[in-house]
Amino acid sequence: MRRRYQLDQKEFSEINITPFTDVILVLLIIFMITSPFLISGAFNVKLPKAVSAETAVTQSLEVYLTEKNEVIINDKPVPLNDVIGTLKAQYVLRNNTDVIIKADKNVVHGNFINVLDLIKQSGAGKILVATQKTTEVHQQ
Questions:
Q1: What is the percentage of the chain residues whose pLDDT exceeds 90?
Q2: Cα separation of 136 and 138, whole Å?
Q3: Domain limits for position 68
Q4: Measuring CA to CA, which residue among 58, 61, 62, 71 is closest to residue 107?
Q5: Contact present, 97 and 70 (Cβ < 8 Å)
Q6: In Å, how far are 18, 22, 28 from 31, measured between CA atoms?
Q7: Domains in the chain: how many in total?
Q8: Do residues 99 and 63 make contact, with C-beta atoms less than 8 angstroms apart?
Q9: Distance between CA 75 and CA 110 in Å, rounded?
C-alpha cells in the first residue's frame, strides 16, 4: 500500500504588510509634494508685483503682514507688542537673523513701516521684502 504524504495545512499566523507599506509610502510622497503649497498658501497675502523681483534661496524667517494688519510669524498670529520678543526667540532657534517680509499689496504704508521698524529693533541682519515677478514695465 502506498502512502500519500500530505502537507500539514497550517493557518498563516503572520499578516502580509507589504500592501499596507505601499499605501503608506504613496501617502508620504503625496504629503511631501503638496506640503509646500499648503504652507505658502496658508495666509491670504497678495504680494505686490515687480519687474526686478529676484528668487531668494535662503533659510530666512518669514514675517507675514496681512491686509487686515495681522502680523504672522512662524505660522502664528503675533500682537504688535510681541513682535520683537518673538523674532529674537526665532533668531536663537534658527541661528539666523535674516528676515523676509511678505506684506500684502493693500497694506497701508504706515503699518508696513511700523512692522519694518519692529523688525529692525529686534536685531535682524538682512531684511528682504518679497514681491511677485512680473514682465510688465511700469512707466510714469
A1: 10
A2: 6
A3: 49-133
A4: 71
A5: no
A6: 20, 14, 5
A7: 1
A8: yes
A9: 23
Q: Which residues contact 118 (CB under 8 A, 6 or more apart)?
A: 80, 83, 84, 87
Amino acid at 93: L
In a domain, 32, yes or no: no
Mean pLDDT of 5-24: 76
Per-residue pLDDT of 68-119, as tens digits, reads 888 888 788 889 888 899 888 888 888 888 888 888 888 888 888 998 999 8
CATH code for the domain in which residue 88 is found: 3.30.420.270
The answer to whether the beta carbons of residues 60 and 126 sit under 8 Å apart is: yes
CA angle 85, 87, 91 (to 5 degrees): 120
